[in-house]
User: What shape does this take?
Amino acid sequence: MAQRTKSAFGRRRVIAYHGRCFDGALSAALVEALLDAVEGPAAATRYRPLAHQQGRGYDARLLAGDCNAVVDFKYSTSHRLHWWFDHHKSGFRSPRQRAHFEARRSPQMFFAPEYPSCSMLIHDVARDRFGVDLGRFGETLRWADLIDSARFSSAQQAVELTEPALQLMTYIEASSDAEVNALIPRFGRESLAAIVAGEPVHGTFERLFAEHWRNVDRVRAAARLTGQVLLTDLTATPLDGINKFIGFYLFPDAVYSVAVIAGPRRAKVAVGTNPWRAGSRRHDIAALCEPYGGGGHAAVGAVTLPAGQTAEALRVAREIAQQLARSTP
Assistant: This one.
């Protein structure tokens, strides 16, 4: 067990996390609880959501605190990065970055792509390395593992959204950065059912749920299944997010889904494998997304572009779909 040390860190804390993501938001809450235990509470904490984008990754200047943590997102060589946890295969943008991480040998940085969720990685490191018990997050942790690994019992469970955790997932994926940031401190203090039953989540989810079923109709109209690949162009309607399992709910024979959305804040290419046909997967989705500045896992990934780059997002989607259509990588 690593020895706890109170330090000068923590006066002004920045926690950067994978934005619009259940696991990312929970990871931010978990690392904050870990840092409170190891270094003492911060005078102020600023949450900074991050997105997989084309280009050079996030600007290290956002690491502007006395203590800076990045969770559920890519590594940075910046000396301003003090804590790092990630479980994505695409955690490093280059072999040079991986070599930098290994040479750094920091006892506060952890990369474990074998973990289904970054949340569970933080929980286990907190317990095993620092002797910090984060058991109060237990219910939410279990759901983060299930959601991030897409281990739903069925497409119906993933799309019909009857469980509070899946309703909260929907809220997080569709809400503004400020709304998700406000939610993070509630993890571990309130049950999922209590968070979902209260405002602003309840009222927002009711609106989102109605829109969700309109999105089901949009996917039904726009999706094109060619062989095992489902390509869906949803750019005719401004959308910032959509349930990634709708395609498999409507087209259960699809092995892969490539969907394009475009809204006022971003354009996005979402790429996924049908969890109920996972044995048919022949491609590494993260590896397909990385050349476009995206990332993810072997079975799911995404590329995010700035708002207005709809044509580029469609080009990327078509290229990825063509690669997925090949029987071998």
Observations:
- The domain at 223-325 is CATH 3.10.310.30 (Diaminopimelate Epimerase; Chain A, domain 1).
- The chain has two domains: 12-147, 223-325.
- The longest helix spans residues 201-222.
- The chain is about 40% helix and 20% strand.
